[in-house]
Amino acid sequence: MRITVVEDNEGLRKGLTYRLQDEGHSVDALSDGLEASSFLGQEESDLVVLDINLPGQTGLDVLRDMRARNDHRPVILLTARGETEDRVVGLDAGADDYLVKPFAMDELVARVRALSRRGAVAPRRSIALGALELELEPLQLIAPDGPLDVPRRELSVLSALARSSASAISKTQLLDAVYGAGADADEKVIEVYISRLRKRLAPHGVSISVKRGIGYSLEARG
């Protein structure tokens, strides 16, 4: 799944990101409420992990904005406040679940799985990339005349790029997608995979652009 994490505490945000990526999810991590509201209004994701206490705009306001525009993707609220009335306010605003800090990462992962099992999360089966179709389970790239022979690690890089939509994704994030968070791998290997993918994708109208100091993103014609 593609999961949006909105948490202003840097350590917790990184911890959530790495753990969810370890579980096989693609993660967009944000720290500001106004930024999150704008991002969620434009970008796709399957589930949102949302802190209540955020700079710019509270998590509850972000959630209310989502529901006001008929955005019904599942939301797990995070807060340091454990009183019953705060939980009720969050659930009444449209949250699907609620976790009080501090919490175990295993519990968050279990809540994500529970939402998926009960059908609140509809996992994407494929992503359209111009004339190509990236099937996610099992991971393979399909051209109009049939599957393309693409090595698994290149497919992992392509999947991470495709799941990030228009957002640029860094070499570190791509390394995590291929080898897992914290793996001892050289970022230069990503440049090799990107070069190979560019050659494979170009005949099908799909390109990979680079934003210096930020990362890579996909662009597809048609």
Automatic annotation (TrEMBL):
SMART domains: REC, Trans_reg_C. Residues 124-220 form the OmpR/PhoB-type domain. Residues 2-116 form the Response regulatory domain. InterPro entries: CheY-like_superfamily, OmpR/PhoB-type_DNA-bd, Sig_transdc_resp-reg_C-effctor, Sig_transdc_resp-reg_receiver, WalR-like, WH-like_DNA-bd_sf. Residues 124-220 bind DNA. This is Response regulator transcription factor. The lineage of its organism: Bacteria, Pseudomonadati, Pseudomonadota, Alphaproteobacteria, Rhodobacterales. Pfam families: Response_reg, Trans_reg_C. Keywords: DNA-binding, Phosphoprotein, Transcription, Transcription regulation. It comes from Thalassococcus lentus. Transmembrane segments: none annotated. The modification 4-aspartylphosphate is found at D51.
